[in-house]
């Protein structure tokens, strides 16, 4: 997340030094952005591909822009995969959805991959 206006950027991690160890000794990007704002995790997913975050629309805005760019440049649409703890996954259809929400194609947990979309099922 770049700012509070739903702007996100992907970063090329070119060195292990671009990451820091979290409390579980797992390497990840720094917990704060360049303005010192804390990054917040998502809250839940369901088996229909819906995501429940913090309501800022950061991921939806970023993903919609990327999907539009992929269409414009005739690229293959990306497979949208979310990493999640098993306890964050609810039964399908329980998370509310708005018209601008973007569904994920698959969920990955420590227990394995949960394919959701037809595309994800075809690629497994």
TrEMBL record:
Catalytic activities: (6S)-5-formyl-5,6,7,8-tetrahydrofolate + ATP = (6R)-5,10-methenyltetrahydrofolate + ADP + phosphate
A GO term for molecular function: 5-formyltetrahydrofolate cyclo-ligase activity
Signal sequence coordinates: none
Top-rank taxon: Eukaryota
Gene Ontology cellular-component annotations: mitochondrion
UniProt family annotation: Belongs to the 5-formyltetrahydrofolate cyclo-ligase family.
Protein name: 5-formyltetrahydrofolate cyclo-ligase
């Amino acid at each position: 997340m770049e700012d509070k206006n739903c702007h996100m950027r992907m970063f090329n991690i070119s060195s292990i030094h671009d990451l820091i160890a979290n409390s579980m000794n797992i390497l990840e990007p720094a917990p704060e952005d360049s303005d010192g704002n804390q990054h917040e995790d998502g809250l839940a997913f369901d088996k229909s591909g819906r995501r429940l975050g913090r309501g800022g629309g950061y991921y939806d805005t970023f993903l919609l822009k990327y999907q539009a760019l992929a269409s414009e440049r005739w690229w293959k649409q990306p497979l949208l995969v979310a990493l999640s703890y098993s306890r964050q996954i609810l039964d399908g259809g329980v998370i509310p959805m708005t018209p601008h929400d973007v569904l994920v194609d698959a969920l990955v947990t420590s227990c394995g991959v949960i394919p959701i979309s037809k595309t994800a099922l075809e690629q497994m």
